[in-house]
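ARCHIVE CARD
CATEGORY: sequence design from structure
SOURCE FIELD: tokenized fold
FIELD CONTENT:
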């Protein structure tokens, strides 16, 4: 049963603890250390220390403490044997002015394996120090309020970024652009919930201004619009983070494997004049114009009695189904000789390629051919005359129903530049520019929690005139879902809003 008093309703809000969001290992009173730079031989390696015994660690290895945030060249020795291990830079970051919010230090040493091993062993001999677990420095930064969960995820994405566009998106998220949007929504939602709770508990005492619920209705509608617009981003940020699924599809011997080899600039797939050479899916990761792509070459789509080829065709159709973008390759030499028949032929051919898997033979992929979800590649342009090519271009240009197409010769490379330009333009449309406009969703976790928040706000409208307590529960659920995105939620924040806005008891 739902409670209507403020104290009891506030108790219904669950505070999301750090320990439940992130599985911390060990105690936060421990002092941790680890190699923070890459493994292997390098010019300089960075060993990081964080925790209450950081000062002891620095003094034990260097017999002194440098000024805060000033790099000093020091002799680094084992604290027990006093054997010299290296000479390097030592930096001291007293808390809370550090990445983790704790006392921290860094040893910038030479990157030889023996030097790194010696320094790590020396730190392990200092009382109160232990090796850090994976991601533990960042966990402590989150615990100290230095980062919210979206910024933590942005930091992880930055570390794993492989392309320029991924780097830009990760930097923007790590800087807090995405978190600030969610924080703004939380502030607005807290105010709405505080006003509704106050109306439930104190309206009979005439301490609440007239029209307060009307203001809440307006604010909730605006929040719903903002959230739904944010969700309707066509998964641009998620595509950019994980990579765009690009599938090369078409009939047998159309030149699909040749196109894969041309784009990857290596013999990634076997090319043969024998039809049906490709039986399985061949995948290659590429960086195309700064956008990450998972490029897949698939089996030629045709009816076959060969069991292995049938399985290859089935897998090919599944990949087409899941693709963000299809490169549909067509053999120019097989086009009808009558130019007037070209638009209809190509449209029917596209439907045969982009149809659903054999499990649903009568179901066509629910995408408009006007959308940029495929590129038609007319291959083997070197095998037709220039006059024939001009007639094809003229026919396609005259027909409003003709799909956009790129002429290409995988044999000579003619047309590759135009194809790459079209491909990069489409990738930019699918992923967006990470530096322009509002930041996009980057995690499935964000999308799931935002959808739950939207559903909860719809619950508020559903029960608004029937039961205000149930309507308030919708606001609480929405606020909880938003808080789980950033990792910040607590009932005391709503209490603060009530006292600030209404000065109850004055």
């Amino acid at each position: 049963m739902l409670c209507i008093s403020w104290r009891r309703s506030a108790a219904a809000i669950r505070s999301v603890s750090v320990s439940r969001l992130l599985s911390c290992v060990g105690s936060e009173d421990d002092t941790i250390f680890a190699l923070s730079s890459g493994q292997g031989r390098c010019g300089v390696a960075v060993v990081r220390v964080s925790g209450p015994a950081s000062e002891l660690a620095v003094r034990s290895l260097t017999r002194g403490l440098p000024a805060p945030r000033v790099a000093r060249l020091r002799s680094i020795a084992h604290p027990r044997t006093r054997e010299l291990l290296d000479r390097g830079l030592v930096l001291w970051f007293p808390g809370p002015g550090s990445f983790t919010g704790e006392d921290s230090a860094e040893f910038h040493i030479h990157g030889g394996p023996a030097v790194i091993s010696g320094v790590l062993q020396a730190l392990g001999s200092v009382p109160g120090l232990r090796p850090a677990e994976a991601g533990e420095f960042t966990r402590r930064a989150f615990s100290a309020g230095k980062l919210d969960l979206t910024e933590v995820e942005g930091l992880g994405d930055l570390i794993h970024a492989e392309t320029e566009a991924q780097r830009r998106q990760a930097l923007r998220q790590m800087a807090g652009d995405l978190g600030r949007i969610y924080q703004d929504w939380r502030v607005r939602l807290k105010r709405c919930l505080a006003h509704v709770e106050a109306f439930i508990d104190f309206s009979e005492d005439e301490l609440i201004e007239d029209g307060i619920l009307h203001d809440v209705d307006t604010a909730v509608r605006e929040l719903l619009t903002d959230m739904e617009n944010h969700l309707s981003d066509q998964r641009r940020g998620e595509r950019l983070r994980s990579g765009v699924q690009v599938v090369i599809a078409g009939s047998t011997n159309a030149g699909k494997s040749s196109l894969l080899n041309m784009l990857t600039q290596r013999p990634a797939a076997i090319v043969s004049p024998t039809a049906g050479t490709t039986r399985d899916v061949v995948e290659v990761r590429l960086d195309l114009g700064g956008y990450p792509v998972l490029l897949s070459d698939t089996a030629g789509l045709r009816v076959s009695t060969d069991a292995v080829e049938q399985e290859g065709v089935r897998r090919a159709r599944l990949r087409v189904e899941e693709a963000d973008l299809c490169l549909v390759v067509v053999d120019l030499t097989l086009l009808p000789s009558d130019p007037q028949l070209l638009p209809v032929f190509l449209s029917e051919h596209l439907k045969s390629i982009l149809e659903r898997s054999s499990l649903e033979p009568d179901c066509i992929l629910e995408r408009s051919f006007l959308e940029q979800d495929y590129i038609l590649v007319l291959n083997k342009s070197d095998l037709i005359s220039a006059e024939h090519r001009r007639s094809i271009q003229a026919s396609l240009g005259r027909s409003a129903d003709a799909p956009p197409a790129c002429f290409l010769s995988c044999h000579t490379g003619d047309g590759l530049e135009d194809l790459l330009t079209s491909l990069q333009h489409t990738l930019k449309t699918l992923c967006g520019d990470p530096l322009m406009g509002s930041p996009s969703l980057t995690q499935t976790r964000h999308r799931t929690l935002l959808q739950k928040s939207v559903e909860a706000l719809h619950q508020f409208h559903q029960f608004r005139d029937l039961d205000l307590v149930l309507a308030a529960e919708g606001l609480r659920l929405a606020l909880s879902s938003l808080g789980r995105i950033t990792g910040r939620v607590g009932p005391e924040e709503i209490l603060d809003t009530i006292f600030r806005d209404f000065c109850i008891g004055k």
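CARD ANNOTATION: Residues 1-23+147-233+441-506 form a domain with the Four Helix Bundle (Hemerythrin (Met), subunit A) fold (CATH 1.20.120.430). Residues 177-202 form the longest helix (26 residues).
SHELF: design records, drawer C
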